[in-house]
Amino acid sequence: MKPLQTITIFAIAVLSQALATAQSLEFSGQVIDSETNEPIPFAHLALVGSHTGTSSNQNGHYSLKIDKRGDLKIQVSSIGYNTLIISLKPDNRILNILLEPAVVQLESIIINAIPESPRDIVEKAVKQIPLNYPIEPYFLTGYYKESENTEGNPIYIAEAVVQAAIPKADSEDEMTIRLLKSRKSVFRKDIAFKNKLTPGGFYILIESSIVDPIDPMVIKRMKHYTFSKIGFTKFQGRDMIVIGFTDGHKRQPHSGKFTIDLESYAFVRIEQYKVHGPGLPTDDWKWTYKSFDEQFVLGADKLWYLSSSIFIGDWIKKKTNRKFQTRRLLIPTEHSKVDLHTGKGLEFDREKELYFKASNSDPSFWENYNYIELLENEKQAMQRIDDLRDRNVQN
Questions:
Q1: Three-class SS state of 203
Q2: How many CB atoms lie within 10 A of CB 145?
Q3: What does the CA dihedral 333, 338, 339, 342 come to, rounded to 10 degrees?
Q4: Are 321 and 41 in contact (CB under 8 A)?
Q5: Beta strands in the chain (DSSP E)
Q6: DSSP per position, 114-147
Q7: DSSP 375-387
Q8: C-alpha 128: how far from its chain's center?
Q9: Do the Cβ atoms of 72 and 87 come closer than 8 Å?
Q10: What's CA 210's distance to the chain center, in Å?
């Protein structure tokens, strides 16, 4: 029996070592402004030499899982800051990252020295889209979260790992999306919320303004907008110009900003804001304000890839005048030319609602996936749900 015992123990040891090697390393911390000590929201963190990464949340907190071993380096970047490359050490998993604000010298001279008008720069950026973004089919995997809030308290949170098959740019094929995983937590069942009216929210965020241009990016509609040079900044060591736009509408203005790379003339950030009117008379609710914020990062192939897409919408119930806020967040964590998740998940119809598809919350839900940390009020609401579940189990 002893030889058999020895072989069994050896086999278990080898298996344990193999499982440990297969497990991913998780690094977490906060991305902070080195001068103000303020958190940097939605900073991009990417494994050097790959299309794997994540972003910090609104409070600068991040969590990054890496499957590889060896000499690991991540690149941390945010518009307006110097890009930082950090070597990761397995024995130091809690890592706060300080980014230095980028120094912009002779800003007014540089801006005024650019011969093109703001409209010309935007028009040139529109014409460069086929050269600056992926035109061949690829797969995007990412973290998606949608939530409804009232008076600063979450009503529900639905989260998912989604994979999108992005067709060729000039193809008539439609994008398809699979849910690899999804979950939800409901905190206020007594309130009728609006998500039933907003199906397939992540389709809009994944398609982005590069695929479905907003009006000030459509050359035929630019005449309705006024463009102005706002400033100058840096991102990933490159010079950027910030251009504002507005349609001049007095009651329901549409305005925003473009951050454009002056080397490639790529749209690196697209921000837009809409103020809404009374809505349809037949509706018992109305939007009051919407904002969209899309950011892109430069890949190793010199193409720009979506790094974050955020929608925030304020609305009210007409009868009660109660205020609500809808939030949607998409953070791509992988871009690949091959399907990295073959056979996993179910295809999701853009006319469906994630809320009704998602399962109940599971504490180990993110074990094998990159995700974005919840905000403090969301964590507290989740903790209350967990505490209630534990009390029910004990009783």
A1: helix
A2: 22
A3: -140
A4: no
A5: 25-33, 44-47, 53-55, 61-66, 72-77, 84-88, 97-99, 138-150, 153-166, 176-186, 226-235, 238-246, 254-261, 267-275, 285-298, 304-317, 323-336, 346-348, 359-360
A6: --S-HHHHHHHHHHTHHHHS--S-EEEEEEEEEE
A7: PHHHHHHHHHHHH
A8: 24
A9: yes
A10: 15
Per residue of the chain (395 residues), what is the pLDDT tens digit?
444 443 333 333 333 333 333 467 889 999 999 999 999 999 999 988 877 889 999 899 999 988 766 678 999 999 999 999 999 888 888 899 999 999 776 555 455 567 789 999 999 999 999 999 998 889 999 999 988 888 878 888 888 899 999 888 767 788 888 888 888 888 876 555 554 446 667 888 888 788 888 999 999 999 999 999 998 999 999 999 999 999 988 778 899 999 999 999 999 999 999 987 776 676 777 888 999 999 999 988 899 999 999 999 998 888 888 888 889 999 999 998 888 888 787 777 777 778 777 776 666 777 777 888 777 878 777 777 666 555 555 55
Dihedral class, residue 157 (left if φ above 0, else alpha if ψ from -120 to 50, else beta): beta
Indicate the Cα dihedral angle 214, 328, 44, 211, nearest 10°.
-30
Which of 75, 110, 101, 100 lies closest to 239 in space, CA to CA?
Answer: 110
Question: In the chain, which residues fall in CATH 2.60.40.1120?
Answer: 24-99
Nearest CA-CA partner of 346 in 138, 160, 167: 160
State the Cα–Cα distance between residues 242 and 231, nearest whole angstrom.
5
* CATH for the stretch 24-99: 2.60.40.1120
CA-CA-CA-CA dihedral for 205, 206, 208, 210, to nearest 10: 180
Q: Which is it for the CA torsion 332, 337, 340, 346, positive or negative?
A: positive
Rounded to an integer, what distance in angstroms lies between the CA atom of residue 254 and that of residue 247?
Answer: 6
The tokens for 109 are 């001279």
Q: Are strands 61-66 and 72-77 parallel, antiparallel or unpaired?
A: unpaired
* Predicted model pTM: 0.85
Instruction: Work out the burial of residue 232: count CB atoms within 10 Å of its CB; fewer than 13 is exposed, 13-18 middle, 19 or more buried.
Output: buried
How far apart (Å, rounded) are the C-alpha atoms in residues 79 and 150?
Answer: 31
Pairing label, strands 359-360, 176-186: parallel
